[in-house]
Write a structure and sequence with these properties.
The chain is mostly helical. It is built from 35 helices and 5 strands. Strands 2-3-1-4-5 form a 5-stranded parallel sheet, sandwiched between helices. Among the domains are: 68 residues, no CATH class; 223 residues, P-loop containing nucleotide triphosphate hydrolases (Rossmann fold, 3-Layer(aba) Sandwich). InterPro entries: P-loop_NTPase, TPR-like_helical_dom_sf, TPR_rpt, TPST-like.
Length: 675
């Protein structure tokens, strides 16, 4: 007996077609057409057919079916979504926009519709409408349960869990801007800057109106010193249809990093004109005015900040750190009261507390009360030391490795190589050693441009060291020896190219005043063999004590303990002495006390080493109105004075740990101890 197979029901046929849609759209179309022969115009079958046609590359036929469906099923989100997609594929922006606008009205909480609408609006030249659609998409995503779960994991410190959730989500939907931004944050929190930037860049490319992602990208670019790109994104952010003071603030921060202080000051003034009750903005304005040498205005700005927020430690320190300003008894009373008010919140307000201690230290120093000054400096340093990482033993080992590596024989064995550009003049040493004075003297010469403390050489050095730390090379010497002439040329050219953004004039030579570059004297010789290196050196007690009582905005982690800074000075002297013995005359040393005693003779020696003719302007460096960003910015706008040569002496009873750490370096100054 022959059994007749019963034809599948329309529901079964459609279910089979749905299952085949992704892998075999032509079979899905066949299933849909089978149903339509039985039930002409049946909407689910028409919808399956349209999607199959789209996947088969038959967009026009798909669009016709979807148009018909939308006329009768205009409130079905899936139909509008597909119509928007197909119209977009067919470059029919008006039809896509109409469908997606209808979709987002029906489902405002579905982020994907907003992002797709934004792309279509942008294609149609409606940039501001597109920006608003992106922002609506971001707002909708804030209620997405999957993203919320990943965000909670991030906030709880479960970075691996968040990473897995987001990777799985992006495997399904690779064009999800909020997921990409959050995935970038996970990478950033893990210290993986390259994937972090790549993911956030992708989020911004997909949704150019995603302001929070662009803001985060700017901050990542600033952290990696990619300043031109940061500026480009910060300028774009100013066009947002939803104005925010944060947009101007981040643009100003980029401009400050690039040395465009006047424009940054203008932005801060615009913000304060709208709302003068912003102590942080007053403080930022003060920083810029100080850099520009407009000291009276800087004082007004800092005082405006502390008047509005007396516990704002950094503003007090910024005021105290103006070396030519003295805080009075009323200021001391206000700061002591502020410090007392923070006594129950030290853990939460450490930044304010240690800044207030440093500020009180300076105020009591100005009042000639050495005991109270030292006590506050000591408390400020002790608190700051708990917040930073500095391993003096590990650092000393790194210095010893460099001493052992860069011998005259090793340099000779490496042969020719590196970038031959003679442009850079590296001014190295310790902070508070007179390096800003040297920079100001040199930058007063018509052939030499002053820039700032540039991080590029430190970044190159850290990147090379990471190859040892990650196990690619057994030790520092092996890694350095592996650098071919082409490698060294590439690294030198990278340095020249990355620092070009800081050069604002056509002067042939420029100064990099990052003091810590003394650690990379050998590397500089290998990758920039024609660069000049000037070692600015000051009496160890003067230099180290001055550095210890100076709070630095960033870096210089060795300065918050008298023993640490003494050991650092000793390591520095040892490495430079070893280099002098191997490559005599390569580094020119400026002894601060000699510069003070006979300025013209020392300036002539310095210019002879650089290879430029003497210029009288170098003796009137204090008339140079260039922007200066270091702690000595006011002092270098005055003629050389001798008052600070022995500023450490009133504090000598408490400097035993420093003297012990310095050891023979102290007795042998200005020479290095005999090896």
């Amino acid at each position: 007996m022959i059994q007749h197979l019963r034809a599948p029901s329309p529901q079964q046929a459609l279910a089979e077609g749905e299952a085949l849609l992704a892998s075999a759209p032509h079979k899905a179309l066949t299933a849909a057409e089978t149903v339509l022969r039985q039930a002409p115009g049946f909407p689910p079958a028409e919808f399956l057919a349209a999607r199959a046609l789209r996947r088969m590359g038959k967009g026009k036929q798909a669009l016709a079916k979807l148009d018909a469906l939308a006329r009768n099923n205009g409130r079905v989100p899936a139909v509008l979504w597909e119509l928007g997609q197909v119209a977009s594929d067919q470059n029919d922006a008006p039809r896509a926009i109409a469908a997606l606008q209808a979709l987002t009205q029906l489902q405002p909480a579905v982020a994907g519709g907003w992002f797709l609408l934004a792309r279509q609006l942008r294609k149609a030249g409606r940039a501001q409408d597109a920006w608003r659609a992106d922002l609506s998409g971001v707002h909708a995503s804030s209620r997405d349960t999957g993203l919320l779960k990943a965000a909670v994991a991030v906030n709880d410190g479960d970075l691996d869990g968040a990473d897995a959730m987001l990777a799985e989500r992006l495997a399904r939907e690779s064009d999800d801007p909020p997921a990409l931004r959050l995935h970038g944050e996970v990478a950033w929190r893990k210290g993986e800057m390259t994937p972090a930037i790549a993911r956030v860049e992708q989020a911004v490319a997909l949704a150019p109106g995603f302001d929070l992602a662009r803001d985060f990208l700017i901050r990542l670019l600033l952290q990696t010193n990619r300043l031109p790109e940061a500026l480009e994104h910060a300028e774009v952010l100013q066009g947002s249809p939803i104005p925010a003071s944060g947009h101007k603030l981040i643009l100003a921060s980029v401009l400050v990093r690039l040395g465009h202080q006047e424009r940054a000051a203008g932005l801060y003034r615009e913000l304060l004109a709208g709302d003068p009750d912003q102590p942080q903005v007053w403080q930022n304005l003060g920083h810029v005015l100080k850099t520009l040498g407009r000291q009276a205005e800087a004082v007004e700005a800092y005082r405006a900040a502390v008047t509005r927020q007396p516990t704002m430690g950094e503003a007090w320190w910024s005021l105290a750190n103006l070396k030519t300003v003295k805080l009075n008894a009323d200021d001391i009373a206000t700061m002591e009261q502020a410090l007392a008010s923070l006594s129950d919140a030290v853990d939460e307000r450490k930044e304010d507390v240690f800044h207030l201690h440093f500020s009180l230290g300076k105020a009591f120093e100005d009042a000639k009360n050495a005991e109270s000054a030292f006590a506050h400096y000591d408390k400020g340093n002790a608190l700051r030391r708990t917040m930073i990482l500095h391993d003096a033993d590990a650092f000393a080992a790194d210095v010893e490795a460099a001493k052992q590596t860069f011998s005259a024989a090793f340099i000779a064995s490496m042969g020719e190589g590196g970038c031959p550009a003679p442009d850079p003049i590296f001014v190295v040493g310790l902070p508070r050693s007179g390096s800003t004075l040297v920079e100001q003297i040199l930058s007063s010469h018509p052939m030499i441009e002053g820039t700032m403390e540039l991080p590029e050489m430190m970044m190159i050095g850290a990147r090379l060291q990471s190859r040892v730390d990650e196990g690619e090379f057994a030790d520092f010497a092996t890694m350095t020896a592996s650098l071919t002439p082409a490698d060294r040329q590439r690294l030198g050219e990278e340095y020249i190219e990355r620092t070009r953004i800081h050069r604002q004039t056509d002067r042939p030579l420029f100064i990099d005043k990052m003091p810590n570059n003394w650690q990379h004297t050998g590397l500089i010789r290998l990758i920039l063999p024609n660069a000049k290196i000037v070692d600015a050196r000051r009496h160890p007690l003067s230099c180290c004590f001055s550095g210890w009582k100076q709070h630095f905005a960033r870096g210089q982690t060795f300065t918050y303990d008298l023993t640490d800074i003494g050991r650092y000075y000793r390591d520095y002297v040892g490495l430079m002495a070893a280099w002098d013995a191997q490559i005599p005359g390569h580094v020119h040393r400026v002894i601060y006390e000699r510069m003070v005693a006979d300025t013209e003779a020392e300036v002539r020696r310095l210019l002879d080493y650089i290879g430029v003719p003497f210029d009288p302007a170098c003796l009137e460096f204090y008339k140079n109105d260039r922007a200066v960003r270091t702690a000595s910015s006011e002092q270098v706008r005055q003629p050389i004075f001798k008052d600070g040569l022995e500023a450490w002496k009133p504090y000598e009873p408490w400097l035993g740990p420093l003297k012990a750490a310095l050891g023979p370096v102290l007795e042998s100054y200005p020479d290095a101890p005999l090896a």
